[in-house]
């Protein structure tokens, strides 16, 4: 016996089966693959940001290495390597990336393209010289033991905090255990990196205070703005916190020097410049790194329908 409402037009639509299974299963599998891909993209984004935080200091060390051992032979070597990178390596890599042989640089004259490419090539030579200086032991007065291990430890110290802070941000809208695990790891890292590498107490404090502000500020932004624009807000926030911190501590240290208060120290000028380059690289990394699809990533904690 049929109920009055059990008419053909009121019946639920049946799933259309595809040759490999139901279309529903195929859509669910595709969605799961997209989410897993977004997780990988989020990790790569964090690694990219972390490397950018290291880069300005390495470039600066390369400049000092060249300036400290200046000779016309060094200049000639730099120009030669820069020319090879600018006029052969980079154009070839650009065409391989685009899978296209002929590339048109719109609104750019040959002079502008040449100067830009050559400048970037010289910058790459500076980075190369910095890496050589670290790994060979040249110019590192306090280095002990294996030079390669020392170089790796320096990179780790510079990059670990931006890495874990960025991961805590991108996972801010995940399930509770994921986001809090990422937050606790970031907090622990900010507090333990300094003691683990024998930093002075003042260096631990001057690193922890602004980085904790960046961590919690970015977490709040990521929770408030669920879309992909949240990372742009985090970039602006990180830049603002860094500027405020450097201005306040710079003024405070200048006053301490002015009144000859030697018992207290916030920064030396060398440490101040190091932190400036660190935050500059961090902000640049957040601005230029390819960003993950947060809308897809945030579906990771949602149960499938």
Please, could you describe this protein's structure?
Residues 1-18 and 23-31 have low confidence and may be disordered. The protein has a two-stranded antiparallel sheet. Helix 2 packs across helix 3 (110-136) and helix 4 (147-170) runs antiparallel to helix 5 (176-196). With 305 residues, it is an all-alpha fold. A hairpin with a 2-residue loop joins strand 1 and strand 2 (21-22). It has helices at 23-68, 72-98, 110-136, 147-170, 176-196, 201-224, 230-258, 269-288, 294-297; strands at 17-18, 21-22. The longest helix has 46 residues, at 23-68. The chain has nine helices and two strands. Helix content is 73%, strand content 1%. It folds into two domains: 54-143, no CATH class; 146-289, no CATH class.
Key descriptive features of the protein:
2 domains, two-stranded antiparallel ribbon, 73% helix
Topology, pairings included?
Blueprint: E1 17-18, E2 21-22, H1 23-68, H2 72-98, H3 110-136, H4 147-170, H5 176-196, H6 201-224, H7 230-258, H8 269-288, H9 294-297
Antiparallel strand pairs: 1-2
Query: Strand pairing plus helix content: what structural class?
Result: mainly alpha
Q: Main beta sheet: strand number and arrangement? A: 2 strands, antiparallel
Distance between the first and last residues' Cα: 32 Å
Shape estimate: globular
Number of H- or I-type helical stretches: 9
- Strand tally is 2
SSE series? EEHHHHHHHHH
Helix content: over 70%
Overall pLDDT level: 79
Q: Which value, in Å, is the CA radius of gyration?
A: 26 Å
Number of domains: 2
């Amino acid at each position: 016996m049929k109920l009055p409402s059990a008419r053909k037009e009121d019946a639920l639509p049946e799933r259309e089966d595809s040759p490999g299974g139901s279309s529903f299963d195929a859509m669910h599998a595709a969605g799961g693959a997209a989410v897993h891909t977004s997780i990988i993209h989020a990790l790569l984004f964090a690694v990219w940001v972390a490397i950018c935080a290291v880069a300005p200091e390495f470039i600066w060390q390369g400049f000092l290495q060249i300036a400290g051992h200046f000779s016309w032979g060094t200049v000639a070597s730099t120009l030669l390597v820069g020319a090879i990178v600018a006029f052969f390596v980079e154009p070839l890599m650009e065409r391989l990336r685009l899978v296209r042989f002929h590339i048109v640089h719109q609104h750019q004259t040959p002079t502008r393209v040449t100067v830009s490419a050559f400048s970037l090539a010289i910058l790459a030579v500076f980075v190369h010289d910095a890496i050589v200086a670290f790994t060979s032991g040249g110019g590192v007065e306090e280095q002990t033991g294996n030079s390669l291990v020392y170089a790796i430890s320096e990179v780790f110290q510079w990059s670990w905090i931006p890495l874990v802070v960025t991961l805590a941000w991108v996972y801010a809208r995940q399930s509770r255990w994921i986001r809090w695990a990422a937050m606790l790891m970031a907090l622990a890292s900010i507090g333990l990196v300094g003691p683990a590498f024998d930093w002075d107490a003042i260096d631990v404090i001057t690193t922890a205070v602004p980085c904790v502000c960046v961590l919690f500020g970015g977490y709040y932004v990521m929770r408030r703005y669920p879309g992909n624009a949240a990372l742009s807000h985090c970039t602006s926030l990180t830049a603002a916190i860094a500027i405020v911190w450097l201005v306040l501590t710079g003024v405070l240290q200048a006053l301490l020097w002015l009144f000859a208060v030697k018992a207290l120290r916030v920064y030396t000028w060398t440490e101040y410049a190091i932190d400036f380059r660190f935050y500059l690289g961090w902000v640049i990394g957040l601005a230029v790194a390819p960003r993950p699809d947060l809308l897809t990533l945030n579906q990771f904690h949602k149960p499938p329908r």
